[in-house]
Amino acid sequence: MEKTEFSSIRRKLGKTQKQLAALLGMSLKTIHSYEQGWRSIPAHIERQLYFLLIKQRGRNKPLIPCWEQKMCPDKEACPAWEFQSGDLCWFLCGTLCECTSDSSYRDKINICRDCSIFQRLIE
Questions:
Q1: What GO MF annotations does this protein's record show (predicted)?
Q2: What range defines the domain where residue 100 resides?
Q3: Could you tell me if 51 and 78 lie in one domain?
Q4: How would DSSP label each residue in 25-59?
Q5: I need a surface site. Which of 8, 76, 108, 109 has the fewest CB within 10 A?
Q6: What is the pLDDT of residues 17-64, one digit of tens each?
Q7: Are 98 and 113 in contact (CB under 8 A)?
Q8: Rounded distance, CA 40 to CA 97, Å?
Q9: Are residues 118 and 90 in contact, defined by beta-carbon separation less than 8 angstroms?
Q10: 3-state class of 82 per DSSP?
């Protein structure tokens, strides 16, 4: 995640830097460092921001689970299906789509950002 996207998500959440620092359990100086580009944004912080953004926006339409949208042939072996979290496939490591099962979260989220399921959630 780049500093501009971090700042943009903070604004979309309607939070000041101080409020976001409290929400994420970190110092205001750390938030400043992310937004100025002095520090890289860790994967777990990126993950939390996307989670908050998606949960804040809610859903107007019922969600079709990822395994149905992608017609997953081996859904029973996927954590998204196991935990009935077809909207959190981007959040869960070990999912089977797009060859992400052995990927780190950082690599996985780079693939998921281009996925239509993820895109619909953050729109």
A1: DNA binding
A2: 66-122
A3: no
A4: TS-HHHHHHHHHTSSPPPHHHHHHHHHHHHHHH--
A5: 76
A6: 999 999 999 999 999 999 999 999 999 999 999 999 888 876 666 778
A7: no
A8: 27
A9: yes
A10: helix
